Description:
Oligomer: homodimer
Number of helices of chain A: 13
Shape of chain A: globular
Strand content of chain A: 15-25%
Organism (chains A, B): Mangrovimonas yunxiaonensis
Helix content of chain A: 25-40%
GO molecular function (chains A, B): metal ion binding; peptidase activity
Keywords (chains A, B): Hydrolase, Metal-binding, Protease
Largest sheet of chain A: 6 strands, mixed
Amino acid sequence: MNSINSYIENNKERFLNELIDLLKIPSISADSAYKGEVKKTAEAVKEQLELAGCDKVEIHPTNGHPIVYGEKIIDPNLPTVLVYGHYDVQPPDPLDLWDSEPFNPVIKPTALHPEGAIFARGACDDKGQMYMHVKALEYMVKEQKLPCNVKFMIEGEEEVGSEHLAGFIKANKDKLKNDVILISDTGMIAKDVPSITTGLRGLSYVEVEVTGPNRDLHSGLYGGAVANPINILSNMIASLHDENNHITIPGFYDKVEELSDEERAKMAEAPFSLDQYKASIDIDAVHGETGFTTNERNSIRPTLDVNGIWGGYIGEGAKTVLPSKAYAKISMRLVPNQDWEEITALFQSHFERIAPKSVRVKVTPHHGGQGYVTPIDSIGYQAASKAYEQTFGKTPIPQRSGGSIPIVALFEQELKSKTILMGFGLDSDAIHSPNEHFGVWNYLKGIETIPWFYKHFAELSQ
Amino acid sequence: MNSINSYIENNKERFLNELIDLLKIPSISADSAYKGEVKKTAEAVKEQLELAGCDKVEIHPTNGHPIVYGEKIIDPNLPTVLVYGHYDVQPPDPLDLWDSEPFNPVIKPTALHPEGAIFARGACDDKGQMYMHVKALEYMVKEQKLPCNVKFMIEGEEEVGSEHLAGFIKANKDKLKNDVILISDTGMIAKDVPSITTGLRGLSYVEVEVTGPNRDLHSGLYGGAVANPINILSNMIASLHDENNHITIPGFYDKVEELSDEERAKMAEAPFSLDQYKASIDIDAVHGETGFTTNERNSIRPTLDVNGIWGGYIGEGAKTVLPSKAYAKISMRLVPNQDWEEITALFQSHFERIAPKSVRVKVTPHHGGQGYVTPIDSIGYQAASKAYEQTFGKTPIPQRSGGSIPIVALFEQELKSKTILMGFGLDSDAIHSPNEHFGVWNYLKGIETIPWFYKHFAELSQ
């Protein structure tokens, strides 16, 4: 299958130009003013899937943005890969921090990408990574190298919470039947360090409100005698971690999965410089749970962070107010087996229980999602690992991501299959930020690696 | 001296009308657009002091608003009372919450004031309370009852920090020489419970900034491994009190004055219903330092309150950010003998010392002032106490106020004399708020009580 390299060599200008055309359409799912552009993008994806060799390509309307579906069934007895991706993008704000127009893609070299990177909103997340799969399919169909069946499900609401995807999946379980789900919407450790994301954290996001007196009071006249909701909220937040930075909510760790020694040892193989890490965000020391490394703390361990806090007088100068209320937004990242709804309920009852009688507390659950993990001994993982070995010349490192992609857990629940996360992006790609970009090398390397996954997956499935 | 009652009876309409005329001038010191009105008010005060019998009445210009000075020296060998007050007022905003125009005074009955209250900005704070002294002087001069010398110093910048008063005092120590300073700019416990404010708390106000990473991070990717400045700030704030609600800053209590049993017992005589207190601000329990009552906690004990806190995402909905910075405004109310600059320095070094290495902390001192206390065995206090006994038929209760009037400490430092705070306002007068008012009964009771103070002070000073 070395022909993939020559196929890329002969077609790379077209591969880049087609992606650039797709990036020019501002498919901002969060902004209803762009509804027409989102639809236009769905139509462009449909057209490209057809050109790549997909059959039965359809645009499924939803109450939000449409889902594009297509398939290439070569033999019902062969295994089936379901590719998931999304064609919608984050809003490009703040616009003034972009060096070029977010929807007028340009290719420029960078220190990490001397061969050039495509700068545009969605270049990496996820139009670029999704389109690698379309081009890999094109190669396999044109060169008759497709070893199994393939289905595509490309949605337009990932950046706004995939609201209508669950309904589509539940209504189309037969159509979406598959043996493995393949997604490129994550990153790898470095250009020369391939990695496969084997875990995602779940999420529970809540907002808390602490009420003291029924109105703002003069802190001189009442201070010291009446509970100050900011002080109380600070106490309550502080009490959520113990001196080892363990979370103190009773039952919080009950279902936390203990990682196998093998996977933990593999994780530790990932090249990591604590000095570089600290320097990159300008901190003097890291901070986290006793007994775990930095890379473990932000991936295989559950955490609790305050994402926002406010109360009292926050303008210029001074006001001696003892406020009536204080608020915080708190999120917990969860690991596989922790159920986000159960954790949300544990948080709520704990937070209410620890409140002193001098205040009233309201906890409002916001949203959440389950964590996810793929065992590294699965056929899907092994096929991906072999594919990277072939194109990078080294075994990829299994990597737990600290982030959350709640739909992956949904896929497993509804479709009963595991997801393989083959990401080709880099942390420096600035997804969700100004000057998002995707290395040309990464884009083409993805197109090169994906057909090897199909080959090994089909062989290992026999 | 029962003639004061008939004098008031014969002149009360005029006393009210003169005050109403003064209240009509919008002397808003904070707003430079009202500079001319503030000056007009100073001129009106000058005129009234002259009419009441003061000599050498002058308007002293400052770089801000002018100070009005006047005196009536009947015998250099007799003691001298210095009356301090202010003719400037707080801004009336929010205007839409006023039931009548703030500078168009009206007299209306209320539940607490069936005989009527004057509704206007400054009615109680401090034009009304200051003017009681002008009318008491008028009576004593006209009826030849003035038993000692009197000086008036009425300023126009109290509501904006008395910026130019210190300079005036330091430059005029001889002119202002006195044996006691008399101020009516506080309140009393209830209409039938006279009280004398014997203490004011000092203040130290600081702003703190906690910096973690140099930019906002994704809480999924970094959460658990990098110190979250909001969580750290919450921990640091929580650690500023121990389980008995004592403040943990080393040295904080070193100079705290222990109250005499006599004064503490007198304080406890003040009528106080904890149930009513809790109901008035809708709380289920009070909260404060172990070993002290509610009235002690908010007056004779130093306290630490967070007046404002902010950091991270505080808009609608959710954002999973691990913010770079978190902030708080923190104020400490201090008791006599605690030096506010020393306490500010203690806070700063403690707060910097307790910060973990994973964050950087900046403490910015904002402003402050010294606390103040008048001993209840002083001649001034005894004279005031006897005056109240005469007009209220009961001994007034010494009361520590939790609030701060930094100039009182300045008076003692520069003029070496004690201040007696004879307040006739009520908590319900809504000073600094919409619908500020002052009971007609309270206004006239002040005019009635003040001459008795002079009589007793002169007699006790012999």
